[in-house]
Structure formats: C-alpha cells, structure tokens
C-alpha cells in the first residue's frame, strides 16, 4: 500500500508538469522555490551548456544533471555569491569556481564547456578550467542520463537517492531568481539550440530550506514578473518573445533580453540583427611569398583545424604546426591531392587523399578538416587519433602510438614559410598559391582562433609576412601583372606565326622608356626578330624577317602612352604587311627585303632580362636593348594568335617578387629627401628615379660616394667590347675637373671611319659625331677649366642629340639622312695612345680627375676595378692605368640605425634578384661575428651576408650553383670604423664583393641561372627556428650588433625603422657610438666576472 501511494504521488507530480513555464517580461524563467526541467544534455565528450541568471540570494542550486546514478554528474550552484561547478567524469569529483558577488539582481552569464579532458566554467568574463585524469571521458549514456534540472531537484528523488550520482544534491537549497536563454551544444545537436522548459513551475511543490513542502498553486497557470524577481506586471499575461516569434535566421539563437529578443549569430557565416546577412569572412590571396606565423603557448590533448581554400597550383603548403623537435602536423597539396603528415613522439602517420578523377587544384573552394585527439593507454603511452575530411565527403582516419600524453603545438605556419622545403615532414616543397578563408582552429575545445581575422586586424601575436592581400583575387587570364624594376621580365610562349599572326595586349605606365616585348631566333644567325618598345612615351615596333630590320612608330605623334592610363596595342601580320593599332590610332608598314617568314624560337620575353638573355649581338634598331631599359608598369589581357596567356600564372612560376600579380595604382613617391646629396627625383611607376649626374654620388638614391680617378696626361682607361657595337642611341654621363683648357675626354675607336669624341676646347665641351660621311659638332658650356667639378650628359636618339653640361643644354636635331648607326669596337677615356691618325682633333690627353663614366648603363670605372680579377664574356674588357684617388672626407650616412642586441632583427620586403642582384650597406662594430642579412627562396635558394671572425662572407645558392665570396684582407673589419659592403652581380655568371670601394672577391658560375628569392629580407638576424633550419649555411651563431647605414637594394634605400614589415624595439635611429662603447664594455666586464 505504501509503494502504491508513493508511486501515485510521483505520477501525479509528473502529470502536472507542462510546458507553460513562469516567465518574466524578458522571457526569464522565474524560480521562486521551484525548478525547471529541460531535455537531456547529451554532453558526450564535447559540448556546451550556458544560461543567464539573476538573483538576490547568495546561495542556491542553479543546475544539475547526471548519468542516472552511477558516477558522472554536473552540479552548478551559487555558494556565497560565487558560482561553483562540481563535476565527475569517472575519475573523482573536481571543482571549478568563477565570479563573485553574483547576487546583485543583475543578469549574469554562466557557461559550462566540455572538450575532451578539459572542462571549463565561465561566468561573465572569468574562466576557470581543469583537465580530467580518467581514461573514459564519455558523459554517461544518453538513454540512462537524467534530464537537466534548473533551480532545484524534483521532490520524488527524496525516495530514490540511488538514482542520483550525487545524492547530496537533493538537500541543496533551491535557486531563487530568474533564468533565461538556456542554450546547448552537444553530440546530438552540434549547433547551439535554445532550450525550452518541459515543466510548469507554477504547479510544482515549493521548497524552503533543504526540505520541500507541497503547496500547489491552482489559482494561476503562470506567474508574471515585471523585469525583477517577484515584481508582478499588470495588464494581462506575457509570453517569451522568442517563443512567440523567433526572428533569427540561419541557425541564430534567439536571446531574450530586457529590451526584447536579440539574435546571437552562432554561424560565423552570417551577421546582422537577425543573422540575415552573409558575413564577409576574412580571406586572403597567397602568391607564394606571403604567409602567417603564430607561436602557441602550451600543449593540447586534442584540436581541430578547418580551412577553405582554392588554387590552380598542384602543390603548396597549406599549414604546418610543430615545435623544433620531432612533433609536427603538416598539411599541403601535392599533385592535386591533400597530403597530411603527422609525427608525435616516436610515432608517425602519413595520409594522402586524392579520389579517382578528382583534383583539388581546380580553382574551386574546398573545405579541409583535420582533427587530432589523444587517448591514454598507460601512464606514459597514448594514442593520437587523426581524422581528415575534404569537402565533408572524402576522408581518412588513422592513429599513432607513442610515449606522449599531449600534443606539443609550438608554432603555426599558414600558407607557407621562410623555407618550406626544410620543414620537417613536408611533402609540399613550395608555398601555397591561391586563396584561403574561413580558418577555424580549436584547441581542447576552449581556445578558438581565426588566424586570418587576427592577421587582418593586426593583432600583435600573429606575424604577417609579405604583402598579404586580405581579399581573394581569382587569378585569371585577364588579371594584370606589374613589372616593378627595369630588369623584371617573364618568358612567355613563342609566337609561332611563320607567315601570319596576331598579338594584342594592354599596358599602363608613366615611365617614358622601356622594352615591352622581345623575341628572336635561336642564335644571332637565325632569321627573325620581333620587338615592341617605348621611347620618349611613344610606341615602336621592330621586325626583322631575315632581310634587315624595319623600325616603325605605331602610336600617334600627338599623344604619348606613358600617361598612367591603360592603352591597348595590337599587331596583325600577313607576310610582310603589318597592321598595328594603339587605342584608336592605326598604322601600317611593310617589312624590308623579300622574306615573308618570321622564325622565332626563344619564346617572347616580356620586359628586359639582361644582355646575356639576348645573346651578344644586339640589333641596333631596338633602342631600349642598347640602353638596357626594361618596361616598368602593368600588363594585362595578352592574347597570342587568339590564345589568352595567363600572365599571373607565369609570374608565380618564374618571378613573383619583381613581377607581382596585381597592378597597384601609381603614387607620388618623390619627396624633398628622397634623393640624397643634391640628386634630382623623378617619378617612376611606383618607384623613384634619382638623377645623380650633377653630384659626387651614385647609386639608386645618390648616397654612395663615386670613385674618383686621376689622369696625368699619359694615363687612360681603355675598353674593348666583346664584339663590334652598332648603336643608334647612346646615353652617357661623367664628371670631370681640370685646370687645362684643351684635352680629349673620351672617344670611340673602330676599323671604320665612325667616331664619337668629346673634348675640352678652350674651356668648352666639344662633341663630334661622325657616321660614314656625315658629321655633327655640338659645343656647350664655358670656363670649364676652372678646376671645379663639372658634369657632362650626352643623349642621342638617331638624329637627335642633347648635350648637357652642368645646367646648360644644347640640342642638334639636324637630319643625317640614313647615317644613324654608329659602329665602334671600343672606347678610350682620359687619354689617347700617341700618334692616333684617326683623332678628330689633335688635342693633348686629359690631366685632371674624373668620376662616374657611364655609357648605356655600363659603369666603365667599376668594370675597370673588377677587370683586374677577370673578364665576363658578355661585358667589355677594361684596362685602366689611371690612379684611384681616396677621398679624405667622412662617409655619407643615410638611414642609420643601431642594432642594440645580437638577438634582434627586422624584416623588409624581399630582395628582387631574379635577373640581377645588388645590395649595398655600411656598418661599424666591435663584434667579430654576426649576420648582416638573409633572404630565402624557392627550391632552397637563398642569399646571405655575415661577419665571421672580423671578415665578410657572402653565400648565395641558386639551384645547384653555390656562390661564395669572402675577403682575404689581413685586417679585421670589426674595428669600430665605418666600412662599406657592395654585393654586385656583374653579369649573368659573375658576382663581385667590394669592400670600401675595392674589389675583395669575385666568383663565377658555369652558366646563367635565375635565383628565386621570396619571403622576408631579414636584416641584423633571423628568427630562431629559421636559424636552426639553416645552420648549415649560416655560420654566425647570432645576429649583428652595431651600426648600419645606407642599406640599398631593389633600387631603393628603405628606412629600416619606418619601413620595416617586422619591426624591433631593439633597433634605434642613428649610431650612438658612446652608447655602443658602454654596451660593449659592460658585456666584457660581465664575461670577466664569469
């Protein structure tokens, strides 16, 4: 009879539990000695349960659930105003506490979060977490688990304490206050879902103290609270606004607030008041030179990494996680499939996902998910389970056992690294090229990261390398590329139209001169040359079908095409008949001779790649080849015989550092201090061009002192060209000073009658040009024998001559008929051998000083210094008898900085060295060793400079070629005096190291090879992990400590503090010699003490 009564009472209590809960005005469940029952929380091993509450009581049970009376439970309660979570996952009870003074009558948020071993309690912004020691982490079984009770426990548990995993919970005081917005995520519902009560608190027995007393309220079905606890609202009933009408879309959670319903967008793809707007997710374009790096702090027992990508490239590193030891996770693309390699402790695991007839390099978005979880086997041995899915369809699972209890995170590389091929476990040897978005990383289910968003917002804990574009640029056929230097170039497919064909392209620049296209036969003897160039803002086409070249201007004389706007050029050829258009202007011409076939075998070169690329014989009709001036600007929409050419793809494969896959708007870069020492700044296409001809300085920004040479009347500089030169254009400048009114300054020589001679005649410059039977004479300047420095600048474009002496210019444009090609075998500077019968004037040799003799971009004085160590095949052989004059004046110090520590560095944009390398800087230090700079690249290419035992060492790797340059001086350069270092690539096969303007070392390689550098140009040192990976090549154990000045590379002189992509607080402006002395002395004293 007793059993029947008890059962009937329990059944009656259950029967009166309905879904109508007592609600406040804000949708809160009012708990005044009552409780609410909610569906089971299927926590499993991962899940969250959260709610908002407010109360005036410091104590009370807020929530309880368990596994049906065995072991596992969660008890959340208020204890003296602090939230306490007591829980058991099979290995004993644990307690977490968070928050204080929570009984202030205001709304607070409490959340329980489970991720494997880790459980976290968050109250408002305070979080407490702990890890469980048990092996079985599953929270009970869904079939036997209890419901979730909020506010208290049902009275029928009094007689069934064995069904409680924590029997003492029945004696806990019930919660008095309001609860709202109860949200679960669990194994059953992986997305957050707002929960509704399945009990009617108005019909529940109320409790006081620790015992319940039945007081059934039959007068009201609901109790309305006017925003505060027990504050009744007049004017009828009120229902939860979220229950009445849920306005949230795309899985958004409706949250009741004092101001009405609000939508919490749990799906990161949507935002807006009702989660109705597609959120613009952080995404980025990687071109092979950019990546992100993040350093983790601590370990994890499980993590997940989700990202979306699209690419056209069959190989590339997506991300790499690991430490400097043997723990890593590497995910990349290889041959269009997904490769995953993992090593934990002594165990390793390899996966490759490439379904039949499916590739992931199809330029479509793909989603990759990688999950790792550690499961203990014994106290020292564990399994690491690895699961990989692609597009939620293709997947693979595996595990690796070893002596570990957690996963070491170390650092993360996203999209690539400084030296991807050297990363442990990598199958993808190159950086990623394409787009990445929706990056979500979760560690232990608690720590969540969106690395792209962190990089986009500039969070200091993540490093962004390269010029990462935070937008997805779908590199297509019509996408532009930008040639950023006069030596930037790309090799494009061959123009196979033997008798007919067409080419069209769009270009944009503000620079007046530059070679746009060039192609020729396999050798100089093979018929066929095609070139398109811009000279003085006008476009010219040169064609040679084997019977002599034809040069034609194809743009309008009224309009120049270097106005910074897009222009379209097209050429159609049918035998010898040529039709060209530039925008709306059209022109026609016919090639010379009888040949109607064009044989091109080398492919088309976009830009200028250096003299060696075109063979030794340069066609005189292609003027920009003689001037060694390549096109600088943007190119797009190239169509070759009806086939669109993907320029971006070519740049990514060949040289994406100096040929960038986008077209930046040109900006005004010239400022008052851009060019130093009186140099004149001219605007280029996103670059500056400094004219140093009127200064004693040279270099891209006029900061390097020019070498000075003296001539005594018998001394000279003689240059013999590798073969006879035929030029229709010359660009020459030099500086001189003398007190003699008559002298030969320079002249060409040849077996023909052609001559170019510049002489000093009674204090004036006399220029004489003789081609065949035609001759021109130009006079300029006066009183030039005053023993002061004067500059001479000579420019010829066929018939047109410009002679500028100091600031005075004289022109001569008189027609020379068809006599415009000057033939010459060599030249003499400063003197002439005695009894020269071919001299245009019987004048004495030069007595005085000279600087900077440069003709068509070749500095003959620099070549003279280098020629003492050997002659490159593609450059003149120079013999010098004049004497080098050392200048007794302090060096010009520009952009000077002090590296205060051996363990610091800065990062600058990469060195553009694909076709030609040049780096210049000054330094002074008392330390014998240190790394000056390092730049890595593709296929383990790199370039570095360091100080080893007081001597300069340069190491360059280009493919299989290794270039090593080291000075052989008897003196150490760590003498705390300023020294200059100039690394110069003289030709395609010769490299030179100059120290203090003197040749220190020369090295050659057997054949030309383009060095492919990318990533960061590190100055003063490198990151520790990079130093460790490159320890075979970097001999110094640390970075440089001392002063550096005047760094010049890529034709620029960057401010190492203001322009640093990776700055350092241990680098200061200027060179404080006294401070460095004190620093050096203090460290020496420290060493002596120990």
TrEMBL record:
InterPro entries: ConA-like_dom_sf, EGF, Laminin_G, Neurexin-related_CASP. CDD domains: EGF_CA, LamG. One of its GO terms (cellular component) is membrane. Residues 19-207, 283-472, 479-663, 706-882, 895-1071 form the Laminin G domain. It comes from the Eukaryota. Pfam families: EGF, Laminin_G_2. SUPFAM superfamilies: Concanavalin A-like lectins/glucanases. Keywords: Disulfide bond, EGF-like domain. Residues 238-276, 666-703 form the EGF-like domain. This is Neurexin-1-alpha.
